User: Fold these one by one.
Assistant:
Number 1:
Amino acid sequence: MTIDLTPYLTDTGPKYLAIARALSEAIRQGELTPGTRLPPHRQLAESLAVSVQTVSRAYAQAEKMGLLQARVGSGTWVNALDDARETAYLRGHEPRHESPLIDLSIAHPVCPPSHHLRFRQVLVELADHANPDVITACRPIAGLPHQRERASVWLQTRLDVPGDMEDRVLCNGAAHGLMLAVSSVVQHGDLVLTEALTDHGLIALSRTLGFQLRGVAIDAEGVIPEALESACHRFKPRAVYLTPTQLNPTGATMSEARRDAVADVLIRHRVWLIEDDVHALLEAPGLSPITARIPQLGFHVTSLTKVTVPGVRAGYLTVPRGQLHHALPRMRATTWMATPLIFEIADRWIADGTVEVMAAEQRDLLAERQALAARLLGHHAMFSRPTSLHVWITLPDAWRAEELQQQAEQEGLAITTAVPFMVEQTPPPRRIRVSLGAEQDIARLEDGLKRLAVLLDEAPPPMMQIVY
């Protein structure tokens, strides 16, 4: 086929990198679609007035970036594996009794026997004393009034989320709340800014709803205010989606000063904020959400999932004053109303302080596991929070992330690379995310971390030692 990359070419840097970046931009804008066969090296070289060697290097670079796939005897094709990779990641590993695979791949809280006991106890209480509305109600769509009222007070006093009962929507987990928030203000084709590495759920949501994503540079505290300022000025986004507390996958957490600076940028540019605060309860009280600084622009989402039990899909969406009428039709269209029985459990746990007890227990359990990871893997460069679900590890020079992931699976370990969290199709960072909560037996976790330590300390098998 014939393609025209000239609209996407820049004069900066080596020619082969400029061509690779042009291919990336053409793919991002839909000019080149997955499964498209690219022209032979010589044909593209002639059309761009460069050498065949330059095009060969550009194709090789684009293949390393995950954009292209070279097939022996068939040519070079635009990579069509993204959806398959995402589906495989979301499908994950089927739960099996005493599975030999040690799961260090999924964001999952530790669920000790005390959590299960509390769950059974509250079900017994509901069986004896629950209001009939809990099983017969089908409106109001935003949630039963007593559940919303208690949640509203708790959100204000515990998490410093502004608003009152009329600004709150009960939703089926944080993922559902984020979908409602994004779809309330973002239309098909709109641009949303987010961290350069962000939650994979947002990337999937962008494909589902058809909006564009742009990544903004991050550091150890999350999004960099100066980079966000520049991106807002250049791209005029419809909204900005941020995770200020324990960003997935890096664990980056903004200081209060960083949150102030980010809020100032959003105010200057009058941009909607979608704040993913699902990890708020994994930090001790004291951090204030960005939404508290800009309540007129901020949609705030949190849930109980990361500190109680994952099956309690109790999510809380707070909308800016006057925006509820946008969120409710989307609530009705996606689920009608959140499950009242789940929120009756959450309501009782909030009322009697169980949520805070379970959150404190979760932080203690994760701190123990973080200490274990530091002891076994700490001689490698890694970043984590004391009570985070993950550690973010820089690989030794000998390893590439996907190679390590494949070798780890052969060794009975499931780990996660940066690929599911990447907004732009650029070379993935040589890092892995190691999750500490999915294995409930700490002895199995220790065994898995020891196996991983051995892998990291060794060179890859000879067949993986490819020179580019």
Number 2:
Amino acid sequence: MKRYFIRVTQSIKRQNSAIKRNALIPLKLGLLSVKRSLAQESRETKVMLITYKRFTKGQASKQEMQEAHRQFVDVIRGLGLGVLAVLPFSPITLPFVVKLGEKIGVNVLPSAFMKDLREEEVIEIQQEIEMIIESDDDIPSTNNKA
């Protein structure tokens, strides 16, 4: 009887651990998605700062400035959500605010968190960002001390 009880409890433990692993998969996928989106926002923000730096030197085009301004708006959106994340009951209020924004027609989330981008577009954007960062590193800085 004791052996039977041990086998049953071990079987139950294995089933519970399998259930826990399967339950964690969607959570892990969601966290990976957030990580990718935050990494993309970080890269875009670096490009924005580089563009503003180039603008001060008179080297940025109008199109680059428009992209930088769009990214600045995304940074402001992120800051707004960050303020809401600090408030009490944020696990309830954040999804509510996002859904309310969708109903009203206001983008509350930064562009990196939008799901309408295809994977190929994301890869192309990342390659463009890397090219801009590399080209900015190639530009010699001029320190004129007169």
